[in-house]
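Letters spell out the chain; backbone shape is given numerically. Both lines appear below:
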Amino acid sequence: MTREDYERYAAAFNARDYDGVFDFYAENPRMEFFGIKITTRDQLREFYSFLHSYVHETIVVEKFASSDELAAVEGVIRIEAYRDLTREILDAHGMQQFFPIANGDVQEMRQYIHYHLEDGKIASVGCAIVP
């Protein structure tokens, strides 16, 4: 995966093109982050369709490095709520590790994301947030 490939991936994510995002993944990907597990196109679409019905989320890539087996990204994830996303709503959707956010609020989080690659496609994802 090149920086240009990743920029296309981030652009698809920022545009809410979930099928375009999933096209970057291997046949049986393993995404696990903050208590969420996603292994299919439908799960990815369901998770992000729900989340993005409350917030506008964008990825800003600051640093990128890759090899044949790994792509590493450092960037800022910006979340802006356009509806209240309460603790009760999050808990009801199995998202206990996510933070509530009120309409109009903005959260910015520095993230380090590792994408394990197989044949140029994303096979698994791991990420960490820096406080």
Q: What stands out?
A: The mean pLDDT is 91. The radius of gyration is 14 Å.
